[in-house]
Amino acid sequence: MTTGSDGDAGAVRDDPTGRAARLCSLARERWDLVVVGGGITGAAVLHEATRRGLRSALVEREDFAAGTSSGSSKMLHGGLRYLAYGKVRLVRTSVHERDRLLSELGSAAVPTRLVVPLPKALGGRLLLRGGTWLYTAFSSGPPLGVRRRLSTDELARAVPGLDVREFRGAVEVGEAVVDDAGLVFRRLRSAEAAGAVVVNRLAATSAAATGAGRVELELSDRRAGRELRVVASRAVNAAGIWASSWGGTTGIPALRFSRGIHLVFARSSWPVVSGVVLPTPDHRWVFVLPYGAFVLVGTTDVEEPGVPADVHVHAEDVRYLWRVLRNAFPRLPVGPNDVVDAYAGVRALWGDASKPVSAVARDEMIARGPGPMWTIVGGKLTTHRAMARRLLDAMGVPDRPAELLRPTKSAPLGPGEGPSPVPGAELLYRWTPDDAAASRALAELVSTAVRTTQPVSLGDLIDRRFHALHRLSPGFADVASCVADAAAAALGWSDETRRHELDAVRADIARSTRGVREA
């Protein structure tokens, strides 16, 4: 690969993602902090560390947001149900962070109304009424901090088709939805604009504290088949479900792993307007949530015996969601053939091993050691900023006013920012084979993603840069082919590589969603 100021044209042609320059910088410089893990937690830690003036870098062994950070419920929410477990501080923090994110993200976060049906039993009804009152009291005000009582007739109108016979009205509260993977990229690009370096497909194979009070990390660049050594004053393990396997980490309690899946429908086939919480026989909640052009249904909460080698949608989880839906909606307007996508994620939890995983609250855990190495696991998408701040405070890194950190360059607008809960992917849902203008616009989106977010594969683009949620729909094959054409031009793929990438996407979709077919 050509690098350096004398070979700019060659560098762009041979290394369109800028990966070679990032690797060179990573190995050459001394770092105040290196973060291992490119999900929302690692991205938040990097963002906050950079904001506080630390020279920081982040490495991710797969792709950014490749795990649970692209497989969540897409909600910025306060965790209403955790009030029942006494987690008042967690809920208050979550509500504050939700409101702050709605203000910060602008049109990239979309407010939505969430209907919570009230049971006929007096005790449960009073508990939910009091809980929702406290929940909205934590909020800073409209539009999310508004609570409204609904009669049973109003509930029937707000959620058409819902069997209201088991309920005594409802309470409506405010929440918000966001593109979870897009939020990860937003944090990473903001940190990069202020001088951080981020590299994906770079595995941390070991880490050791040195006698000089520093950390040496061994990194494996599997694509190039070479090893790198990086020296930093501190290191943070934000590897999620893989946190316990990261070299040199101590002080982490035994982690538990919970699998959650979602089914996706087109709103054209099920025109949901307000989100609704559905109680389940095992005393959980399942959400039916409008999300841009889609309706999301989820999530499950099933314990995994260990770190899964293959995260996919299980048939028993699909059947569980169908039972909940059909019990709540006797005339459900959608069936198995209407599922346009399905996805799964695995959460890393810690807490009381005697409780079912659904009862384990999503607090984060921070551990130190050995030496200047730290670990953070748990938490929620909504609280990612607060988690990062608590970690940096525990590390003794002084806060500083945000205005002292002037970006060294402007962060380009790319996939992950826009006026929709699924920004960037909007174009994929409108695209048709005979729309030349849309094809050109899609090619530009791919080019921008390549320049700014380091995609390596077609799956990187489709699943995380554009976060497509219609992979099981009939027209998706044509969309994937168009994205493959644009990616081949931007990344210099041969015809053989393009075919291989398309085959890999098809195989991944079949593998990750096979539970839909088997249910």
Uncertain residue ranges: 1-13, 403-417
Number of helices: 15
**So what's the overall shape?**
globular
For the record, the CATH architecture of the largest domain stands as 3-Layer(bba) Sandwich
The termini sit apart by: 48 Å
Q: Write down how many β-strands occur, each being a DSSP E stretch of 2 or more residues.
A: 18
User: Which percent band covers the strand fraction?
Assistant: 15-25%
| Overall number of structural domains | 4
Q: How big is the Rg?
A: 23 Å
| Name of the CATH first level of the largest domain | Alpha Beta
In brief:
With 519 residues, the chain is of the alpha+beta class.
Protein described:
- This protein is an alpha+beta fold.
- It has four domains: 168 residues, FAD/NAD(P)-binding domain (3-Layer(bba) Sandwich); 74 residues, no CATH class; 94 residues, 2-Layer Sandwich (D-Amino Acid Oxidase, Chain A, domain 2), CATH 3.30.9.10; 93 residues, no CATH class.
- The protein is built from 15 helices and 18 strands.
- The strands form two sheets. Strands 3, 4, 5, 6, 11, 12, 13, 14, 15 and 16 form a ten-stranded mixed sheet that branches.
- A hairpin with a 4-residue loop joins strand 9 and strand 10.
- The chain is globular, with a radius of gyration of 23 Å.
